[in-house]
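Review form for a predicted model. The reviewer records the input and the model, then writes brief findings.
Reviewer: anonymous (R2)
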Amino acid sequence: MTTQLPRTLTLLRNATLPSGAVVDVRIEDGVVLSVDPAQGGPTDDAADDETLDLTGHVLLTAPAEPHAHLDKARSWDLIRPPMGDLRSAIDSWMEYAATMSVESVADRARTQALAMLSNGTTAIRCHVDVLVGPEPLRGAEALVQVRDELAGLIDIELVALAGPLSADEDLEAVLDLGVDLVGGAPHLAPDPSADLARLLAMAERRGIGVDLHTDENLDGAVTLTQYARAVRSWPAGTSLSAGHCVRLGTLEAAELAPVIAEVLASDIGIVTLPITNLYLQGWEREHSVPRGLTALRPLLDAGVRVGAGADNVQDPFNPVGRSDALETASLLVTAGHLTLDEAYAAVSDGARSVMHLPPAGATPGARAEFLAVRAATLADAIANAPADRFVIHAGRLVAHSETRRTVAAPLTAPSLLLETR
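Model under review:
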């Protein structure tokens, strides 16, 4: 991988939108100025460093990752944990976390964030553990460092993930480092209601938003309803979101409808995380294994803000993952039964909405956050996830990937090949 300074762009030429329209996009100060039918023909401004010819590329709103764990990423090979469910993943991680240093966390997190950027993600919301035991701030210190190092290339927002065993004073100390939001996993606590109240009280006292791991299980109580009612009177515009919400996918329509009504009334964004929840959920089932996803169709149809992310990548909670939002979109089509447009919207516009980021993409006045993929259509991009990409953040080219493929010539004459297909 080579590095160079980000390149400011003022014109994207001959870009194909998902609608099929071929356009020229003008950019000024990181904002889209205009989107007009392409003038066509070769680029006359080839020598102009501020012009990018996107002939043969589909231009998409850049993905945003609404739920990452950069502190855990790429630790699978270091830990070699047993494959299994959420509880076994937590146990494996906690044992390893006691041994890691600030520097090792920062190295893995930086590598992961740059991999996501190279694939098109220009904003990440990252949960970072409030560690239990000695030096509980190690993860947060590492992530604050990485966030500051990569400023200007990728926007990173941090959430303090305070588990049921995390001490309040440690959560306070993590927030004092500059971590942005309060997080946690109340459904894992012996008393989910009390742990939820504890975390919300902390956020309200500090005047910041909340992003909770919520009901990441196939049975048990639904804490999302209590969460929604508790924040009903919070100031408008407060960032409120709930990740996973797997339990919603198991509810009958009559049980689900009132929960969705509460979510809508409090404007809580829901984050679905297909690759990790498809891996973690259902290990105890011997047949008819559930998909482990939230209730995507009812949530979308009701008008709830829904975003999608990858969650864990190559760690005890998910041994695989390509750090690519197109992988998440593909899973939303196959496992979540979303349309191609809905699936890509979930990893881009939907994720940005859940994260309370300004609108982005090929619309005048929107932020110039783009992923250009060498593909003919959106379906082509999601299905094949071509590696040839341009990534634009705040109107600047921040990543460019090219591939070269060589295939040996056939030993059999082409005419014979045609006859034997």
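Findings: The chain has two domains: 7-61+363-401, 64-354.
Further findings: The mean pLDDT is 94.
Recommendation: see findings above.
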